Automatic annotation (TrEMBL), chain A:
One of its GO terms (molecular function) is pyridoxal phosphate binding. Residues 188-306 form the Aminotransferase class V domain. This is glycine dehydrogenase (aminomethyl-transferring). NCBIfam families: PRK04366.1. GO terms for cellular component: cytosol; glycine cleavage complex. Keywords: Aminotransferase, Oxidoreductase, Pyridoxal phosphate, Transferase. It comes from Pontixanthobacter aestiaquae. GO terms for biological process: glycine decarboxylation via glycine cleavage system. Gene3D superfamilies: 6.20.440.10, Aspartate Aminotransferase, domain 1, Type I PLP-dependent aspartate aminotransferase-like (Major domain). Residues 388-487 form the Glycine dehydrogenase C-terminal domain. The keyword Plastid does not apply. It is an enzyme of class 1 (oxidoreductase).
Automatic annotation (TrEMBL), chain B:
This is Probable glycine dehydrogenase (decarboxylating) subunit 1. SUPFAM superfamilies: PLP-dependent transferases. Belongs to the GcvP family. N-terminal subunit subfamily. One of its GO terms (molecular function) is glycine dehydrogenase (decarboxylating) activity. The keyword Oxidoreductase applies. Residues 1-447 form the Glycine cleavage system P-protein N-terminal domain. The glycine cleavage system is composed of four proteins: P, T, L and H. In this organism, the P 'protein' is a heterodimer of two subunits. Keywords: Oxidoreductase.
C-alpha cells in the first residue's frame, strides 16, 4: 500500500477566494466553529490504531490453508482522540431533526425519543445472537410478537410478516405474497396497476417481481381516476398498488370502492403504508379492503433515519394472504411459550404455503424494540393524537401559504399529513430548487422537491406531529419570505445556499467522471 | 403526552386559521364506515417513561445475553468487542437523526463518511468500487445474483453447497420471481470444500457462481481456481463473506479473481442485535460494472466555489428516477450501520484489523485443539479462520439446548441450519472471537466431555 499522505492535506479553499457572502478568508479554510475536515486517508496511516490488541506471535499455529494474506489492505487508522474529532467534525456538517425543523414530505422526519435508543441497547436485545436457542431468547421473541399484535390491531388486518428490512423490501414481500397466492390457485396474472401518484418504489418493486407495470392516471382532484382503474381491471391484473394517503398528501376517498372492484376482478390490493402516520389510530386499512400493506416503522413509529437507514418494513396481510407470508415468524402457544418457526412445523401454525425467506435472520430487531417502545409510550389514545396533530399541522401550513404559493389541490379539501405546492408564478430563471436552497440559508432543511411527479416543480411539506405551533409559525414566516423573493426575481436565490458548509455541488461532474473511492495521490 | 408539543389552545387557534370546526373535519375524505370514533380497543393507553422502560427491561431480562454466557455462536453473525466511542459517535444527533443526503450542501457529514466507508470496503474486498451499503449480507447476495443476470444476460445460477443455507434460501425465493434457474447443492461433510464438483456444474448458460469464503463450515475454498473456471465459461464469480474480520488474515476475494464481492458487515461496529439491523457490503472488482450495481453510491465532486464535496451519484440506477427501469427497488441503505462500521474500522486501521484477525485465529486454533482432545469429538476442518465444525455422535441440537441451561451457548448446530439432512445432526459450528476467553473454552470442553461420555 502507498503510505497514506499523513501530512499533505490542505484545505481546498485557497486564501482570498471567499465570495461576497463568505466574509474574509481564513488561512486554515476553517470558519470558527465550522471546521473543514480531510478524509481519513489523508490524515491517518497504516501504523496507528485506536484499539489495544495483543501482538500475536507470527510463528504461532496457522490453519489458514494457504490463504494467508500477504498484501497490505491499505486501511488508515487513527488513535481514539483523533477519530472522535474526525467524526464529530463531520457530524457538524449535517442537518438532522435534532438540529431543527425538517419538513421532508413523504419521509416523516419526527422527533426520535432517546428512551427508544436506551431500550434498544439493553443487553437482552442488543447482545443476543439470532441463532441462540429459542429458550434463551423468549424476551426478544416476545418483542416481535407484541409488536406484531400492535400492528395487527392498529391496521385491522389478519397477519403480519415481520422480516422485511425496509419499506421497499416490504413492498416486495407484499407483492410476492400476492404472486404466491395467485400461483397457488393456478392463476398466472401478469400486470400490476400503479396509479401515477404512487411512490417511486412501487413500480420498481412490481417490475422486480416479474410483473408488467401499467400506470393509472390521477384525476383533477389528485386522486386515483376510479373509472380509468375500473376500465383497466381484468383477468390479467394481479394487483393494484396504491399509496394511501397518496403522495399528493390526499386521502383516497374511493378506497373501499377500489378494493371491491379489484377483488371482484380476482386481483389483490397492495397499499403502500409509508404514510400510515396520517391515519394511525384513526383509520384501519383492513376496514378499507386492503390485502397487504407495509409499515415503515422508522417513519410512523419514530426510529431514527440515520442518514438513510436502517429502515424496517413489516407487512400486514389479509386473511387471504396470511398463509403465504415468508419465514421465519413467531407463534405464541397457549402456555405462553413463543416458537420461532423457521421451516419445520410452519403448517402447524397456519403458514401452510410460506413463499420462502427474504433475509438471513428475523428482521430489524433493533427497530422493533424502538417502535414498540414508541407505541407503548403513546398508547392507543396517543397514537390517535399523533395522526390528528400531524394532519392539523399540515393543514395549518397549507392554509397559511396558499395565498402566496400555488397549492394545486387546495380546493379538493383538507390534506392529510403533508401539504403539496407547485412552482407557478416564480420569476424567470428561478425554480423550486432555488427556493429550497434559499430555505437552507434560513436554517431549515428543505421540503421534498420535484415529487410527486404529477405537479410541476412540486414541493411536499410534511411537518409531522412533533413540531410546536411556534416552530411552524417561524417556518411559515421564513417560507413566505423566500417565496416572495422567488416571485420578485431575487437572483441571489440562484446561487444559494450561501451559508451552508458547501455551496451548490456539481452533480453532473460527479456522474460524468465518477470518483467513488479514495485513490492515493501518487 | 411528552412527545406532542401542541396545546389545546394551539389546536383551536390552528383550526380557526384553517377554517375547520373540529379536527374531525380534516378527516372528511375518509369514508364514514372506516372512521374510528375513539381509541382502538384492546390496546393500552399511553404510559410514562418509567413504566415503559420497566416493561421493556422485563422483556430484555428474559433473554440470555452473550456477555452472560460462554459464547460460541457464529454462522453469519459474530460477537466482537465494539469500542465505546463507536456507539458515542453514532448517537450524535446530526448522524442519528439525519435523512438520506438529498440536500448535499447540508449533508456533507454523512456523504464524506459514506465516501470513506466505500473506500474502506473496496480495499478490504480487493475491489475497485463498493456501494454505500445494503440491508444485510443475504440480500446483498441476492442483489449480486440479479446483477450477474443483468451483466451476462444469462439465468443459470450455480450455488456452492457451502453457501450459508439462509443466504441460499433468499436467493431461491427471489429467483422464483425472476426466472433464474438455481443449480444449488447441499454441502457435503468433508475437510475440504468440493471445488471439483462445483466447477463441474458451471456451463455456458451460467451467469454466476456463488461461493462463500470462509464457507458455512468454516473452510477456506481456493477462490482462484473457481474464478478461472467461471471466467472460462463467461460466468461471474460472486464471493460471499460473512465475517469481515477474516479479511485481516486471509487474501481478499478481489485479489483472488472474484468479480462481485458481497458480505455481511455486522462484525465491525454493529453488534449482534438478534439478527438486525445488519450491514450489507457490496463491491465490484472492475470499474466497468459500476453502472450495473444496485443501491447508493457516493461520489466526489466540487462545489460552486471549487471546494471538494460529496454527492449521491449515478442514481439513474435507483428507484426514484427511472421507476420500473431501475436496477433494483432498494431505497433505504444501512447508513447508520455503515457509520458504525467505518468508525470501528478507522479505530482499528490496518494494524488493528490485522491484530484483531490474528487474535481471533489464535484463540480459534486453541479451541480446535482442545475440542479435538475431547473424547468423541472430531474437528472436521483442515483450514479455518475463527469458526470450524466439530462432529459427534449425539444430536447437536439437543446438546446445544442442554448446555444453554448452564449458560453455555455452545455453537450453531448443523441440524438447525439443515433440518432435512440427517447426516448433519451431529455437527456443531463453533465460533471463537477475541471476546472468547480461554476459560470459556475450558468450560465448553468440560461440558462436552460430560455430555458425550
Amino acid at each position: 500500500m502507498n503510505a497514506p499522505n499523513k501530512s499533505g492535506w490542505k484545505p481546498t479553499t485557497p486564501a482570498g477566494t471567499d465570495g461576497a457572502f463568505g466574509g474574509p478568508a481564513t488561512t486554515t479554510g476553517n470558519k470558527a466553529l465550522m471546521l473543514e475536515e480531510p478524509l481519513i486517508f489523508e490524515i491517518a496511516d497504516n501504523q496507528t490504531t485506536g484499539v489495544d490488541l495483543p501482538q500475536v506471535d507470527p510463528s504461532a499455529a496457522s490453519r489458514l490453508g494457504g490463504m494467508a494474506r500477504d498484501a497490505d489492505i491499505g486501511l488508515p487508522g487513527l488513535a481514539e482522540p483523533e477519530a472522535v474529532r474526525h467524526y464529530t467534525r463531520l457530524s457538524r456538517q449535517n442537518y438532522g431533526i435534532d438540529l431543527g425543523f425538517f419538513p421532508l414530505g413523504s419521509c416523516t422526519m419526527k422527533h426520535n425519543p432517546r428512551l427508544n435508543e436506551k431500550v434498544a441497547r439493553m443487553p437482552g436485545f442488543a447482545d443476543v445472537h439470532p441463532l441462540a436457542p429459542t429458550d434463551t431468547v423468549q424476551g426478544a421473541l416476545g418483542v416481535i410478537n407484541e409488536l406484531a399484535e400492535w400492528l395487527i390491531k392498529l391496521t385491522g388486518m389478519h397477519g403480519v410478516a415481520m422480516s422485511p428490512k425496509a419499506g421497499a423490501h416490504g413492498e416486495l414481500c407484499g407483492i410476492l405474497c400476492i404472486r404466491a397466492a395467485l400461483e397457488a390457485r393456478g392463476d398466472a396474472r401478469e400486470v400490476v396497476l400503479v396509479p401515477e401518484s404512487a411512490h417511486g418504489t412501487n413500480p420498481a418493486t412490481a417490475a422486480f417481481a416479474g410483473y408488467k407495470v401499467e400506470n393509472i392516471p390521477a384525476n383533477e382532484a389528485g386522486r386515483v381516476d376510479l373509472d380509468a382503474l375500473k376500465a383497466r381491471l381484468g383477468p390479467d391484473v394481479a394487483a393494484v398498488m396504491i399509496t394511501n394517503p397518496n403522495t399528493c398528501g390526499l386521502f383516497e376517498p374511493d378506497m373501499r370502492a377500489i378494493s371491491d372492484a379489484v377483488h371482484e376482478a380476482g386481483g389483490f390490493v397492495y397499499c403502500d403504508g409509508a404514510n400510515f402516520n396520517a391515519i394511525v389510530g384513526r383509520v384501519r386499512p383492513g376496514d378499507l379492503g386492503v390485502d397487504a400493506m407495509h409499515i415503515n416503522l422508522h417513519k410512523t413509529f419514530s426510529t431514527p433515519h440515520g442518514g438513510g437507514g436502517p429502515g424496517s418494513g413489516p407487512v400486514v396481510l389479509s386473511e387471504a394472504l396470511s398463509p403465504y407470508g415468508p419465514l421465519p415468524f413467531t407463534a405464541r402457544t397457549d402456555d405462553g411459550y413463543i416458537h420461532l418457526v423457521e421451516e419445520e412445523g410452519a403448517a402447524d401454525y397456519g403458514h401452510t404455503q410460506a413463499f420462502g425467506r427474504m433475509t438471513a435472520f428475523h428482521g430489524q430487531m433493533g427497530m422493533f424494540t424502538r417502535a414498540l417502545t414508541y407505541m407503548l409510550s403513546h398508547g392507543a389514545d396517543g397514537l390517535k393524537q399523533v395522526a390528528e396533530d400531524a394532519v392539523l399541522n399540515a393543514n395549518y401550513i397549507l392554509r397559511s401559504m396558499e395565498d402566496v404559493l400555488y397549492a394545486p389541490y387546495a380546493d379538493s379539501g383538507p390534506c392529510m399529513h403533508e401539504a403539496l405546492f407547485g412552482d407557478k408564478d416564480f420569476a424567470d430563471g428561478l425554480s423550486t430548487m432555488d427556493l429550497a436552497k434559499g430555505l437552507i440559508d434560513e436554517g431549515y432543511h428543505p421540503m421534498t422537491m420535484y415529487f410527486p411527479l404529477v405537479v410541476h416543480g412540486a414541493m411536499l411539506v410534511e411537518p409531522t406531529e412533533t413540531e410546536s405551533k411556534a416552530t411552524i409559525d417561524q417556518f411559515i414566516t421564513a417560507f413566505r419570505s423566500v417565496v416572495e423573493r422567488a416571485k420578485a426575481g431575487d437572483q441571489t436565490l440562484a446561487t444559494a445556499p450561501h451559508y451552508a458548509p458547501r455551496s451548490r455541488l456539481d452533480e453532473t461532474m460527479a456522474a460524468r467522471k465518477p470518483l467513488l473511492s479514495f485513490i492515493d495521490p501518487d | 403526552m411528552r412527545y406532542l408539543p401542541l396545546t389545546d389552545t394551539d389546536r383551536s387557534a390552528m383550526l380557526d386559521t384553517i377554517g375547520a370546526a373540529s379536527v374531525d373535519d380534516l378527516f372528511v375524505d375518509v369514508p364514514e364506515v372506516a372512521r374510528l370514533d375513539g381509541p382502538i380497543r384492546d390496546l393500552p393507553m399511553h404510559a410514562g417513561e418509567m413504566a415503559v422502560e420497566k416493561h421493556m427491561r422485563g422483556l430484555s431480562k428474559q433473554n440470555l445475553a452473550a456477555a452472560d454466557a460462554a459464547f460460541f455462536l457464529g454462522a453469519g453473525a459474530y460477537r466482537h468487542h465494539v469500542p465505546a466511542s463507536v456507539d458515542h459517535i453514532i448517537q450524535r444527533g446530526e448522524f442519528l437523526t439525519a435523512y438520506t443526503p438529498y440536500q448535499p450542501e447540508i449533508a456533507q457529514g454523512t456523504l464524506q463518511m459514506l465516501f470513506e466507508f466505500q473506500s474502506q470496503v473496496a480495499r478490504l474486498y480487493g475491489c475497485a468500487v463498493a456501494n454505500a451499503s445494503m440491508y444485510d449480507g443475504s440480500t446483498a447476495c441476492w442483489e449480486a445474483v440479479a446483477m450477474a443476470h443483468r451483466v451476462t444476460k444469462r439465468k443459470r445460477v450455480v450455488l456452492s453447497g457451502a453457501l450459508h443455507p439462509h443466504y441460499a434460501e433468499v436467493v431461491r425465493t427471489m429467483a422464483k420471481f425472476t426466472d433464474d434457474e438455481i443449480a444449488g447443492a447441499q454441502p457435503a461433510i468433508g475437510a475440504q470444500p468440493d471445488n471439483e464438483g462445483l466447477i463441474a456444474r458451471i456451463d455456458d448458460n451460467t451467469s454466476c457462481v456463488v461461493v462463500q469464503y470462509p464457507d458455512i463450515l468454516g473452510r477456506l475454498p481456493d477462490l482462484e481456481e473457481i474464478a478461472e473456471a467461471a471466467h472460462a465459461k463467461g460466468a461471474l464469480l460472486i464471493a460471499v463473506n460473512t465475517e469481515p474480520v477474516a479479511l485481516g488474515a486471509i487474501k481478499s476475494p478481489g485479489e483472488l479473481g472474484a468479480d462481485i464481492v458481497v458480505g455481511e458487515g455486522q462484525s465491525i461496529g454493529v453488534g449482534l442485535q438478534f439478527g438486525g439491523p445488519y450491514l450489507g457490503l457490496f463491491a465490484v472488482r472492475d470499474k466497468k460494472h459500476v453502472r450495473q450495481m444496485p443501491g447508493r453510491l457516493c461520489g466526489e465532486t466540487v462545489d460552486a466555489d471549487g471546494k471538494r464535496g460529496f454527492v449521491l451519484t449515478l442514481s439513474t440506477r435507483e428507484q426514484h428516477i427511472r421507476r420500473e427501469k431501475a436496477t433494483s427497488n432498494i431505497c433505504t441503505n444501512s447508513g447508520l450501520c455503515a457509520l458504525a462500521f467505518s468508525v470501528h474500522m478507522t479505530l482499528l486501521g490496518e494494524k488493528g484489523l490485522r491484530q484483531l484477525a490474528a487474535e481471533n485465529h489464535r484463540l480459534a486454533c486453541i479451541a480446535a485443539d482442545k475440542l479435538a482432545a475431547v473424547p468423541g469429538v472430531t474437528v472436521l476442518n483442515d483450514s479455518f479462520f475463527n469458526e470450524f465444525t466439530i462432529m459427534f455422535d449425539a444430536d447437536a441440537r439437543q446438546v446445544v439446548r442442554d448446555l444453554a441451561e448452564d449458560k453455555i451457548l455452545a455453537g450453531v448446530s448443523l441440524g438447525r441450519l439443515y433440518p432435512d439432512v440427517d447426516a448433519f445432526s451431529g455437527g456443531l459450528l463453533v465460533a471463537v472471537t477475541e471476546t472468547t476467553t480461554e476459560e470459556d473454552i475450558e468450560t465448553l470442553c468440560s461440558a462436552l466431555k460430560e455430555k458425550l461420555s
